[in-house]
Amino acid sequence: MNINQEQLMIFKTVMETGSFSAAARQLGKVPSAVSMSIANFEIDLNLKLFERVGREPVPTAQAINLYEKTEQLLIEINQWKQHAIALSHGLESSLNIVVVSELLHTQWTDYISLLETHFPSLQINIFSAPQEDAQKMLLQGQAQLALMFEREQLESYEQFVELKREALVPVAATKHALSKFKQVSFEQILQSRQIVVASRDKSIKPELLFSKHSWRTDNHHSACSMIIQGLGWGVLPLEMFNENPTLKDQLKILSFQDFTPKFEYFVDLVWNREKPLGSAAHFLINHIRNSRKTTI
User: Fold this and answer.
1) Is the CB of residue 109 less than 8 Å from the CB of residue 124?
2) For residues 134 and 100, is the Cβ–Cβ distance under 8 A?
3) Where is the HTH lysR-type domain (predicted)?
4) Which structural domain, as residue segments, surrounds residue 81?
5) How far is CA 97 from CA 115, 235, 255, in A?
6) What pLDDT sits at residue 294?
7) CA atoms of 228 and 239, how far apart (whole Å)
């Protein structure tokens, strides 16, 4: 069986116009070419598609059944061709992006929508991970891009562009012992169990670990649930309170005696300068760079 896109298009047009001559006019062909294409199509399929008993061809039940699937098949063929063209111009076969757990509440999906608009055939995979694991994924090539907090010390392979500022705040359940104090001393913080968002690799020390005693989790949603339960205090995105106003009744933002309780960080889009990037990744990086120029 040898079926091509032109045969499918001619068949579809005949079905929609109701005649070989009308289809020929719409496609810019002579009627005999349309009639011959349909005849060859029937031979290839070993099916009779039209009854030729009157002035106009009458579609058979088999033709009607095939027509229902023809439109989608033509769309898929066109998408396949466009994807092949994009690959030939440097589009990656897939793009893996890791979002640091505390940033899942941000509007990162806006960037995914932008990629989908410009590269509709691109396979995009999104992962979430603690900061340390996100760095490891970039280093090992498991992700091409990472949305993560600024780092005190850059690794030699890291290259980045700044996106925005993000605030994290220390919190405890309203029923927790620390919430009874107007201000909390560093010693109290040190001796109270902290719920910390951290790598699954226990050999990696979390960046925002202050307490001597800590429990670890790999995402801020589970950390929030544990903190609400009174199992410890922790550091969470301030934006979570805007997303879920009920948290204001369940959590208290702690005030520290010795330093500000609000931690502000830049959020960066990071990639590995030692790994090759495809056109979609370059597009997003350049889009963010150009957006920064218009806002600075």
Assistant:
1) no
2) yes
3) 1-60
4) 5-89
5) 12, 24, 35
6) 67
7) 16
What percent of the chain lies above the pLDDT cut of 90? 52
Average pLDDT over residues 133-155: 90
Q: pTM value? A: 0.62
As to burial, measured by CB atoms within 10 angstroms (0-12 exposed, 13-18 middle, 19+ buried), residue 67 is middle
- For residue 22, what is the domain's CATH number? 1.10.10.10
Per the document, the length of the chain is 296
Rounded distance between C-alpha atoms, residue 9 and residue 203, angstroms:
61
Give bridge partners of residue 272 from the DSSP assignment.
Answer: 158
Given its phi and psi angles, is residue 267 left (phi above 0), alpha (psi -120 to 50 degrees) or beta? beta
The CA dihedral of 116, 80, 125, 120, to the nearest 10 degrees, is 0
How far apart (Å, rounded) are the C-alpha atoms in residues 90 and 88?
A: 6
| CATH number for the domain that contains residue 111 | 3.40.190.10
264-293 tens-digit pLDDT: 888 999 999 888 888 999 999 999 988 877
Which pLDDT score is estimated for 89? Answer: 64
Please check whether residues 63 and 151 belong to one and the same domain. Answer: no
